[in-house]
Amino acid sequence: MGFLNALPGAVAQGLIWGIMAMGLYISYKILNIADLTVDGSICTGACVCATLLLNGCNVFLALLLAFLAGALTGLVTGLFHTLLGIPAILSGILTQLSLWSLNLKILGKANVSISSRSTTVLLTSLDNTNAILVAGVFCVLIVVGLFLFFYTEIGLSVKSTGDNPDMSEAQGVNVKFNTVLGLAISNGLVGLSGALLAQYQGFADINMGRGAIVIGLAAIIIGLSVSRKIKPNFVVSLIGVIGGSITYYLVYTFVIYLGLDTDLLKMLSALVVALFLALPHLKSEYFTKPKLPPELAAREENMGGKKDA
Amino acid sequence: MLEIKNLYKTFNPNTVNEKRALSDLNLHLAPGDFVTVIGGNGAGKSTMLNAISGVWKPDYGTIRINGVDVTNLPAFKRASLLCRVFQDPMKGTAPDMEIAENLAIAARRGTRRSLKWGCTRANREEYRALLAQLDLGLEDRLSTKVGLLSGGQRQAVTLVMATLKNPKLLLLDEHTAALDPKTAAKVLQITNKLVTENALTTMMVTHNMHDAIAYGNRLIMMSEGRIVVDVSGEEKKSLTIDQLLKLFEAGSGSAFVDDKEMLSR
Ligand SMILES: Nc1ncnc2c1ncn2[C@@H]1O[C@H](COP(=O)(O)OP(=O)(O)O)[C@@H](O)[C@H]1O
Ligand SMILES: [Mg+2]
Fold first, then answer.
1. Is the ipTM beyond the 0.95 threshold?
2. CA distances from A225 to A139, A142, A222, A245, A266 (A)
């Protein structure tokens, strides 16, 4: 029963990546920016955390600093975008590229292992029950924190910044500041997720963030497709995103269990995300049936036109 | 209240598309003035409002609102002084946020936003009362996402948002032009009510000469980036469209042509 044994691990990873996906939700859904920084900042969080732990740093302090390091990367992208006027996507790419060098410097080499025997870690893949518990607690705290923040005066204005920047500016909202703030919080969460991930898997690797945005997007798409149907409010959406992330890892684990070539997984994820992103377009372009005006529909119904349908 | 001095703005300077949109514009509004603004397409009406709200910096000249020189102030820092409603009903509200949340954003215009609750229960009651004045039934839909409202409803909400904090200056840029005639009339009526009740200094751009004459205490006409007609008081009250067209010819040296206006007559 290889698959059943792998389930707890999938849930744990899903929860950890759920934190990343919530971060991405802030940039992608709230600010309306596809922020590619995350591929770098998740790794930055892992590298900062691993290096600190190996130097005997307290694990909570290491997590906090990983969050701040992630937030800093978001700040840089935000400033590229707002102060220097570089398009958001490019700003993210630029930060991401520089982070590759920076992450290597932080880590010292391409790959560093943090053994749970010699260092104190909060969670490890050797104990999935505990890992689920720890990652779950983090998820709950973050959902509550984000809920509270986004209903404050500043939080609401960050929402409106993404929803309608012109209107926000006209209402005296500092749109540039809010964009930077949102990107910082977003990448802070991504960094935190990377730090937890490094502890969980027992190593940090400078390639570990590659394609993270695709996983995050997949989690958001899966999650929102369900949560939208339940109740389209903020908390339900966040919970949906975490659920989406867990679903992603369950499917991922299942596909591996089926014996699929793991080298192909990134491509498959990308294709699935592409398909889902394209769905609204495909629907409206190719699958919308001509809609009967209500009075005609009523007439048809009266004439029994629907009976044999 | 508003003082514009020698304002110039040229778009795409030194290119084939060079366009002088404002040319030595001068205007002085007294507190409580309700000015209607008319002029042909491209006369510079929107450009004037853009300059006042700080979309970009003018090439030359100064703008003062309530004694404050705002010429070099970024748009969001002028928000405590002025508010603006656009022609496009989509522009003035955040579609993915609730009606109450939109109003809450507007209610904090000009104050420093903090980590206090962004939309309290007391706020909601206050907004409910404000919306009830509109007589559109929106007071019972505080939690509805604004994106679900019709254009006229959105524009009405935008007007409430704009007047919520009694701005020193209210700028309306053909804000009823995208609505069907019946809705437009209703929104205009709401506008008149909010403006006169709060004695707001207002500039309202319109394409409809009847409205321009019927509303407000002062009327200006623009042509080629400057003001060519300026009537107020008793003279405005008794104005007819024919007189207005004559005044325009005298002021600008050419006949008034404007497709949209001709159609709306
Ligand atoms: N952002 C811009 N870039 C280039 N040209 C502009 C811009 N805004 C306005 N213009 C030009 O300035 C002139 C005045 O435009 P506008 O103020 O929008 O006219 P209206 O009186 O119809 O509102 C027009 O010729 C217009 O094409
Ligand atoms: Mg215009």
1. no
2. 20, 21, 5, 13, 22
